[in-house]
Specification:
- This protein has 95 residues and is α+β, with helices and mostly antiparallel strands.
- It is built from 2 helices and 6 strands; from the N terminus they run βαβββαββ.
- Strands 1-6-5 form a 3-stranded antiparallel beta sheet. Strands 2-3-4 form a 3-stranded antiparallel beta sheet.
Amino acid sequence: MSAFYAAFAVRHLEAGEQYDPATGVLHEVSTVRGPDGDETEFDLWTTCFTARELELLARAAGLTDVEVHGVTPGAYRRQPPTLDHHELLLLARRP
């Protein structure tokens, strides 16, 4: 499973984005273009996680062999998370 990484969201916060450290939620406004070419703005609310949170959630769910890795889109491999990884990759087994 992959999840948005809180450290990346905070480090690379863009103009107009807001990150709530109490909830781990990133808020941004995006634009979608319909088939007729009209554009409409909409709110995106994205929950972001730390590696520790994902590990604790997995263990609380009874998963074993839990690993959390830092990844970027298209580059999924086992490696420690850094501040520049977009996402976290959770690998685990169901007993």
